[in-house]
Amino acid sequence: MTTVIYIYLIATMENIAKPVVTSLEEFKENPAIFYPDWHEETMKYSDGLLTNPVVDSKTGELREMSEIEKLKFGKTTLSDGSYLDEVNETIVTIAKTNEWSVWDKDSRAWKVDNDLLNKKLKELREKALKDLAEAKSNFLNQALEIEKAGKKYTFENNEENRNRLALKFSLMSLLEQDKIEKVKVLNDKGLVEFIELNRTELKDLAKKIQDIIEIADVAEQMAVVGISRYTIEQMLGLNVKDFFRN
Description:
Strand content: 25-35%
Shape: rod-shaped
Number of helices: 7
Helix content: 25-40%
Largest sheet: 3 strands, antiparallel
Radius of gyration: 39 Å
Low-confidence stretches: none
Number of strands: 15
């Protein structure tokens, strides 16, 4: 069985030879047998290929550089958020807490970048306004319960049904009718039915719809004002649905 020995020139830490030897122990006893140009004072060897070789100041052995040594010799650089603690010979890493801060090497701290902060705020506000429109639509279109002759029905409170109901109510008033037929609802089994509502019942349903519309409009106004004024921390914790709680 053979093995490869890697010989390095101390002055440059360059790998100058890779002799194949019968064993590491035999090479240690007489390096010149396997590498005739061997010189004890100017060369070092290793039984493994080293990427960043260095001679250990305490043991005199050749080894791979530590991360601290790589930094000192310019082999690597510190990433943002890290700095060298030279007293304790350690690399300290400080986690980045948000997207709008940049690393300040002089103070060794993350500092807010106003351009990044304003960009993030703009993104959050634009998204919040889109979510607000959806939340308002969902609130406006919430199903309403109707009770008729001891039975419970569900009125699908969407824009089309609201408009249709308003038209029928106008016709009822115009024709001086006391009741309106064919109001589309869902029964307790989820099936479509058409029921008759009198003027009082229709007014009650219309009032429920109007109350929802008014609440939605007020909630939207409050949300728009808040979104325009909130800090980035408030925006990150914002759920626009909270404005539309009954």
